């Protein structure tokens, strides 16, 4: 890629043109940088600052006046014998289980469908479009529909399980109690797997065709080609995909909040909702901020370790 | 769409059957909620409350009429439309400028910019929500510019959500446009901005439209920030419908009708453009 040519001249007008040219990219980036600073960077720094304050509803309009808290907010959040810490820890484990299962299932379904649909067959284009519908739906309409389906007396799920298949004698509750975790998981997977499908489908198109030709000449069967060419070639796509899915689901707020409302059942209390409740239901912003910062640190750590591990494995394979 | 060359051997029966079974199951899984949405929206309330039936016995369009008075749906609709359109328009323009800089110029800080912007994408929304809320409240107190509870605050917030992805995707698109086109535009007497507007933007139009649809969808479906930063007058569809659905006596037929009404525009737009989205993702993952 060619550098924009900068004329070497001592003429002042030329110099000015040079400055303008060098400044142009920065000028073009300026709006993006300003908005990113306003909505992401400054609030993030503010959040870190807030986490060291006793910030309650009395100080919302004048939060500079909130008393300093030192490490108190962190101590409470990490005191697993106290009420706040215990709840946070429980919600952390639930979020971990939820994320691992959602990412695993979504990846499996998305990759499976994409690979099975790699070779053309009749109706493939239509089916591809159809599979993307759940991803295209606004998150809340999907979650509201599932909420309706999980209603104990009038929902489709119990109609199917109790009346049609006779798997249960009495209709189970889905939106409260232990089952709420599975309700949340199913809703999330329904919405997430099409995205994995979309990304892997795009990734498959980057696999050079001559690899398959060579394999066909060697007499490799369909399954063998999938195992020895398709899946290894998807490695770099998968690396990004799994990371993105992990971050999205770990931070997911829309699905649980729409499905259960402000107060989720303890068995399906994801960490984002937990922090939201601490901040906006209990009006304890300092504590909520400390939890957010801890969450961020955890995500950074996982991301760093993940990239380190996958990159090293990628290199040793090559 | 480039396809892998067909193998001289037809796929074995085991593969064909696996494909049939897996795709059928996924098809049914995908279908169930869509069917519930459609069929329930065509039932009278009494049928919906009597328990789920697969086929509606009394077809009616009443829910589609009633919903506009049960919930101030029209009001929510306008709010969502204004917020989503404005944030999309501004975000796309900003992303085009930034992507042009990254794609066509080499300058110190280019790498830093790309990495920083992309990494903001991964941070939890809940982390920004609290401070941003307080910052907006305080900006309002200090300057009188009402960001909290207003369209403006939500627009500013949403437009940044999709910036990283939009910039990243547009850089991929711009990179694939031959530089000779820029040069030709310069020969015709255009400056860099002229080249961007007259050459690059038209050539990257599919990518730009895709990015716009993605931005619109994101704003249209956002719940977390909208639930905190809107009041009764600026309530968006996402929050309005959710609040209604979490009440005790829910007219599920009407809620399903409303869900369909608010989904159809974005779903249709997305499905029409999915081809470009795949192309954009492909271009992005090459780098």
TrEMBL record, chain B:
InterPro entries: BP-dep_ABC_trans_perm, MetI-like, MetI-like_sf
Top-level lineage group: Bacteria
Membrane-spanning intervals of the chain: 21-38, 76-100, 112-139, 151-174, 195-217, 251-273
UniProt cross-references to PROSITE patterns, sorted A to Z: ABC_TM1 (PS50928)
Gene3D superfamilies: MetI-like
Location relative to the cell: Cell membrane
Pfam families xref list: BPD_transp_1
Domain ABC transmembrane type-1 residues, every copy: 77-273
Topological relation to the membrane, as annotated: Multi-pass membrane protein
Alphabetically ordered keywords of this record: Cell membrane, Membrane, Transmembrane, Transmembrane helix, Transport
GO cellular component: plasma membrane
One of the protein's GO biological processes: transmembrane transport
Record's protein name: Carbohydrate ABC transporter permease
């Amino acid at each position: 890629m060619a550098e924009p040519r900068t004329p070497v001249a001592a003429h002042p007008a030329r110099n000015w043109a040079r400055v303008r040219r060098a400044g142009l990219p920065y000028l073009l980036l300026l709006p993006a940088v300003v908005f990113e600073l306003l909505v992401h960077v400054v609030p993030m720094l503010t959040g870190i600052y807030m986490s060291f304050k006793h910030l309650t509803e009395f100080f919302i309009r004048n939060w500079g006046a909130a008393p300093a808290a030192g490490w108190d907010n962190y101590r409470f959040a990490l005191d697993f014998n106290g009420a706040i810490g215990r709840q946070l820890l429980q919600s952390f484990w639930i979020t971990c289980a939820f994320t691992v299962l959602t990412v695993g299932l979504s990846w499996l379904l998305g990759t499976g469908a994409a690979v099975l649909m790699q070779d053309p067959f009749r109706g493939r284009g239509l089916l591809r479009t159809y599979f993307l519908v759940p991803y295209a739906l606004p998150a809340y309409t999907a979650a509201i529909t599932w909420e309706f389906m999980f209603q104990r007396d009038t929902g489709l799920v119990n109609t199917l399980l109790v009346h049609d298949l006779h798997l249960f004698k009495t209709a189970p509750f889905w939106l409260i109690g232990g089952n709420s975790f599975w309700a949340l998981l199913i809703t999330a997977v329904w919405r997430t797997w099409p995205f994995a499908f979309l990304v892997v489908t795009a990734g498959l198109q980057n696999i050079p065709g001559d690899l398959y030709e060579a394999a066909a000449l060697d007499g490799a069967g369909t399954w063998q080609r999938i195992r020895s060419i398709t899946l290894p070639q998807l490695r770099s796509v998968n690396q990004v995909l799994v990371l993105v899915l992990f971050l999205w689901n770990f931070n997911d707020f829309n699905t649980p909040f729409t499905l259960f409302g402000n107060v989720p059942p303890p068995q399906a209390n994801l960490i984002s909702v937990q922090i939201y409740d601490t901040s906006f239901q209990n009006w304890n912003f300092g504590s909520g901020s400390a939890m957010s910062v801890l969450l961020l640190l955890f995500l950074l750590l996982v991301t760093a370790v993940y990239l380190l591990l996958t990159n090293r494995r990628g290199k040793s394979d090559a | 769409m480039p396809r892998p060359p067909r193998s001289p051997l037809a796929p074995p029966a085991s593969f064909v059957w696996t494909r049939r079974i897996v795709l059928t199951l996924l098809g049914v899984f995908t279908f169930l909620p869509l069917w519930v949405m459609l069929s329930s929206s065509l039932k009278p309330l009494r049928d919906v409350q009597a328990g789920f039936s697969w086929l509606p016995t009394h077809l009616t369009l009443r829910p589609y009429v009633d919903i506009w008075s049960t919930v101030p749906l029209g009001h929510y609709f306008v709010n969502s439309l204004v917020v989503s359109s404005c944030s999309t328009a501004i975000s796309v323009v900003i992303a085009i400028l930034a992507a042009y800089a990254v794609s066509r110029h080499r300058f110190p800080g280019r790498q830093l910019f790309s990495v920083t912007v992309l990494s903001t994408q991964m941070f939890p929304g809940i982390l920004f929500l609290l401070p941003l809320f307080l910052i907006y409240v305080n900006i309002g107190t200090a300057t009188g510019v009402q960001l909290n509870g207003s369209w403006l605050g939500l627009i500013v917030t949403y437009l940044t959500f999709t910036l990283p992805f939009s910039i990243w995707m547009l850089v991929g698109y711009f990179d694939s446009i031959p530089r000779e086109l820029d040069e030709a535009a310069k020969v015709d007497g255009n400056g860099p901005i002229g080249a961007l507007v007259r050459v690059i933007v038209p050539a990257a139009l599919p990518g730009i439209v895709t990015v716009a649809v993605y931005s619109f969808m994101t704003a249209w479906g956002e719940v977390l920030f909208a639930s905190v930063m809107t009041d009764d007058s600026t309530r968006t569809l996402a929050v309005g419908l959710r609040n209604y659905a979490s009440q005790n006596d829910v007219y599920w037929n009407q809620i399903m009708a409303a869900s369909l009404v608010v989904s159809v525009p974005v779903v249709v737009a997305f499905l029409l453009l999915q081809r470009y989205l795949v192309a954009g993702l492909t271009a992005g993952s090459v780098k």
